[in-house]
Amino acid sequence: MVKTNSKRFIAIIAVFVVIFALFASVPAYADDLLKASGNVGERVVIADYDNCLTDSEEAELLEYMEKTAKNVKLNIGIVITKDLNGMSDKAYANNFSDTNFGYGSDSIVLMLLNTYNEPKYNLSVDWISTSGSAINKFQKYINNDRIFDRIYDEMGEPSGNKYAYNETTHTYGGYDYYGACKEFVKCVKRYGARGLAIIPVMFVDFVTHHFMIFVIILVVSFLIASGITKSKVKGYKRKAPISAANYMDRSATRVTRQVDRFVREYTTSHTNSSSSGGHGGGHSSGGGSHGGGGGHHR
Question: Best label site of 110, 129, 130, 166, fewest CB within 10 Å?
């Protein structure tokens, strides 16, 4: 009887553990509004809690996000919400990242907040959360607002009341959310490039944001090149000096004996070399901490 009760107790505990594990594995945000795809480390998630994207737009974004995630080897998330669930903008974005991708994972998340002009969100802003290797890759572009500037350029100006849901465009404020979200993914692809692929990205980015400096560099380079070319051409046009041989009386000159003497020179070279062992290096890790930054208030 004791053995039977023990087996039942163990069975009940086992069932409880299985049920607990199943519930624990389901993200807190899991619902019909959350769309996800991709593999571990290259997972992508869209959560449009304010219905600002159509089903077709979400499908296209997911496909583009998945390709980008594979390219940059990062998790990518987008969440559009009007309720921060009692958290700050930063905490909400970080929590969304940790819940869907794992604490300290290599991830980047864009959180777009629709405030509806509620006083409690007067100080809240859109937020980009980064963790793991994404911190070093994107932090400087977040700090200088380069990513958010691109996002807001695509989002455009509000159509109608900027603090209301637009029934014509079916978006908050009438903004172009699809264009904004797609531009965010483009930025992830652009600034998350690795190796030699980052060179053209940096060049285009420099030209875009420092166009006048680029023009000045081109003009100065052209002037220097022109000056060098002109000096070379003048050198070619100079008359060659008249040789003294032209004034010599060759008939009065006769060579009776010609001797070539060579002096052999021996040169001995001795090189001392030494080497020492050792190594250096550094370690960088995003750890479990988050990076990121906020955008403009809407």
Answer: 166
- Percent pLDDT > 70 in the chain is 61
Low pLDDT (below 70) residues in the chain: 1-31, 194-211, 214-215, 218-219, 222, 232-288
Distance CA 79, CA 192 (A): 20
CA angle 160, 163, 167 (to 5 degrees): 55
Q: Dig out the tokens for 101 from the structure.
A: 């991708």
Q: Which of 136, 132, 243, 143 is nearest to 198 (CA)?
A: 136
Whole-angstrom Cα distance, residue 33 to residue 284?
Answer: 36
Alpha helix (H) residue ranges in the chain: 2-25, 55-72, 89-101, 134-143, 146-155, 177-191, 198-209, 211-237
Pairing of strands 107-113, 75-81: parallel
Residue whose entry in the numeric block shows the structure tokens 């960088």: 284
Evaluate whether 47 touches 33 at the Cβ level (below 8 Å): yes
* pLDDT at res. 23: 41
242 DSSP assignment: P
Which residues lie closer than 8 Å to 215 by C-beta, 6 or more apart? none
DSSP secondary structure of 112-138: EE--TT-GGGTT---EEEEETTHHHHH
| CA nearest neighbour of 215 among 223, 226, 207 | 207
Closest by Cα among 31, 43, 52, 39 to 100 = 43
**What per-residue confidence (pLDDT) applies to 216?**
75
